[in-house]
Amino acid sequence: MGDSQQDKQGFELIPIPQEAIGSEENEEIFEVRRIWHKEDQIWYYSVIDFVKVLTRSKNPNVYWSALKKRNQQDQGFVDILEKIKELPLRGKDGRLRGAEFVTREVMLRLVQSIPSERAERVRLWLAQVGEEKLQEIEQQTQAEQLRDFYIRQGRTPEWADARIQNLLSRNALTDEWLARGAQQHLHFSLLTGTIHRGTFGISPDTHHHTVKGLPKGVKNPRDHYTEEELGVLTLAELAARRMHEQNDSRDVPQLVQDAQAAGAFGGRVRQQFEELTGQPVVSSQNFLDQPKGKRKKQLEAPQQGTLFDQEEQKQSPKE
Q1: Do 162 and 304 share a domain, yes or no?
Q2: Residue 157 — very low, low, confident or very high, per pLDDT cuts 50/70/90?
Q3: Are both 44 and 95 inside the same structural domain?
Q4: What does the mean pLDDT of the chain come to?
Q5: Which of 154, 150, 122 is closest to 50 using CA atoms?
Q6: pLDDT tens, 266-303?
Q7: What does the pLDDT read at residue 82?
């Protein structure tokens, strides 16, 4: 949800599927509210909404107050209460009032503490079925924040979109490697280098430090790729992922074979692009120095959560 829409509404509604709460024959729609907390960079969920879903009480506020009083001596419940955050929520009268919210992790614990025959179904939905939907929206939120960050650095919107797509594709590929038997610190550098050499005709080390002149300590070399370099590499890594899936590849030797084939494909794409445009794809351009007039105060990278942290964690120091 965009900032303007969220600021206007104050929250976002998430529908709970009827089958997730055992009410397939009931046409009532159950929804819970959540708020994106900009400082914490995390979603917070309405306690009252979950109490209403679990108990179907006509007055969930009264039920919740009674439940808190009844469990004052329960240390586990007290620990949950201490993690509640009061956030402003706009009521029907248009006024902002404090409402109780918790993170998804805390809500999972809270659901188990509320007596209800629906508790287990709701907990499973929140932990499993709902997680995929929530991750999709959280990914979009993180992507929008990162795109804004890149543009404030002086990058073009087109470059920012290409970089984000490369991040998403790279993370999907490394997830595939982990699931198929590769180990991050032992094999990721080998697999990455195989695709890179096939695509660009040079090793990542030569590309980053010799061609682009990046210092050895640079954290994310791909932040210095051109739009063309990002596009070609994204296609090559997507090809590797598709080959892993189609071949049901297991263990490193098979993954390397797929990486070699994907690199060869990437190399052909690069060569055809160069023939079409008359310009080399591999470029010495980097973003160490902003063009005159665009130099800005050093910006701190946004706090992203796991989606964009994965790349730095998964790729080798030379990647």
Answers
A1: yes
A2: very high
A3: yes
A4: 82
A5: 122
A6: 999 999 999 999 999 999 999 986 544 443 333 344 44
A7: 92
Q: Distances from the Cα of 252 to the Cαs of 92, 185, 235, 285, in angstroms?
A: 58, 13, 21, 34
Residue 99 shares a structural domain with residue 180: no
Main-chain dihedrals φ then ψ at residue 31, nearest 5 degrees: -135, 150
Same domain, 118 and 223: no
Same-domain pairing of 33 and 101: yes
Q: Which of 133, 132, 88, 82 is nearest to 109 (CA)?
A: 82
Q: Which domain does 53 fall in, by range?
A: 3-136
Q: Which burial class, exposed, middle or buried, applies to 110 when counting CB atoms under 10 A from its CB (0-12, 13-18, 19+)?
A: buried
How many domains does one find in the chain?
2
Residues 74 and 32 in one domain: yes
Is 87 a member of any domain?
yes
Residue 148 domain-assigned?
Answer: no
Residue of 39, 313, 15 lying closest to 185 (CA atoms): 313
According to the model, what pLDDT value does residue 7 have?
42
Q: What is the DSSP string of 255-310?
A: HHHHHHHHHHHHHHHHHHHHHHHSS-SS----SSSPPTT---PPPPPP---HHHHH
pLDDT at residue 304 is higher than 50: no
Residue 127 or residue 118, greater confidence = 118
Beta bridge partners of 103: 44
* pTM of model > 0.85: no
> Is-contact 302 145, C-beta < 8 A?
yes
Instruction: Clarify whether residues 204 and 63 are in a common domain.
Output: no
User: Tens of pLDDT along 76-98?
Assistant: 899 899 999 999 877 667 778 88
